[in-house]
Structures are given as structure tokens and as C-alpha cells.
């Protein structure tokens, strides 16, 4: 009695393998993705207009930055337009010259300032940011003020 079952298994196994191979090689159907536009600005969070892009070859970069709770980043400037998205926690951005402050929460996007001295301050929990820069190859995306440590 065991021979017919064995024979059936020998005959059916290649057929099942062929069906799996066909399913794996079938082209994926075409579908549009769902876009949730998080940010579209021509100015930074503090109202400063972006005036130009670098004239050199562009380089996009993206950084996931984790900042401990109850801490402040060093004072710094960004020479290029950039945008941030709060993955976790809160971030209060402070503009040194004007004193303006604005707090961004998990799930919010923000347009960073260019050449304005600022820093980010976290709340009760760690803050995790996704930062995207439109810079130039070989140039820093964040520049600390003299005497300050690097932002990252």
C-alpha cells in the first residue's frame, strides 16, 4: 500500500514545483502608490524664504538622527535647504537671533532654516528625526558655530 502513495508523491511533486515557479515569475500588476504629501514649502519654519540652490552638482542625503531626551543640540546653521520629519518624540526648534520657537511632534514635517543660527531641543522622550538635505558633494550639511560641537 505504501508504494502507490510514494508513486503519487513522485508524480505530484514536480507539478507542484512547476506551479510555484510560475507564480513566482508572473509579472506584478501595475498599480499607483498612495502619496501623502508631508511638506511643500518655499520658506523655513521661521518664515525665512529660500532664495537659491547651490550652483554646484547637487547631492541629496538623508539622515536618521536620534537625540536623547531633555537635551539641546549645539547651535548650528545649514548652508542648504533641508526638511525634517519627526519619527518619534518632539523637537522644539529655536532661532537664536529672533528668539522664535516652534515645536514639532511625531508625524509632523518641517522645512529647516538656511544660514539662520538655530538648534533643536527635545522633550521628555528621545526624539528620532528623518532629515533630508539638498546639498553639494563634499560639503557639510550642518555647520556648528565656533566653539560648539557638531550637530551629528
Automatic annotation (TrEMBL):
Transmembrane segments: none annotated. The keyword Signal applies. Residues 66-131 form the Cupin type-2 domain. Keywords: Signal. CDD domains: cupin_CV2614-like. It holds the Pfam family Cupin_2. Residues 1-23 form the signal peptide. This is Cupin domain-containing protein.
Amino acid at each position: 500500500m505504501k508504494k502507490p502513495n510514494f508513486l503519487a508523491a513522485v508524480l505530484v511533486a514536480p507539478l507542484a514545483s512547476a506551479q510555484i515557479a510560475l507564480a513566482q515569475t508572473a509579472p506584478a500588476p501595475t498599480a499607483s502608490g498612495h502619496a501623502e504629501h508631508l511638506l511643500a514649502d518655499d520658506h523655513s519654519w521661521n518664515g525665512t524664504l529660500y532664495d537659491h540652490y547651490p550652483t554646484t552638482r547637487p547631492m541629496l542625503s538623508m539622515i536618521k538622527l536620534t537625540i536623547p531626551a531633555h537635551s539641546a543640540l549645539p547651535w548650528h546653521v545649514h548652508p542648504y535647504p533641508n526638511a525634517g520629519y519627526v519619527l518619534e518624540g518632539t523637537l522644539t526648534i529655536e532661532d537664536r537671533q529672533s528668539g522664535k520657537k516652534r515645536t514639532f511632534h511625531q508625524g509632523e514635517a518641517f522645512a529647516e532654516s538656511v544660514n539662520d543660527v538655530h538648534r533643536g531641543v527635545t522633550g521628555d522622550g528621545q526624539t528620532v528625526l528623518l532629515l533630508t538635505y539638498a546639498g553639494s558633494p563634499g560639503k557639510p550639511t550642518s555647520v556648528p558655530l565656533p566653539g560648539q560641537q557638531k550637530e551629528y
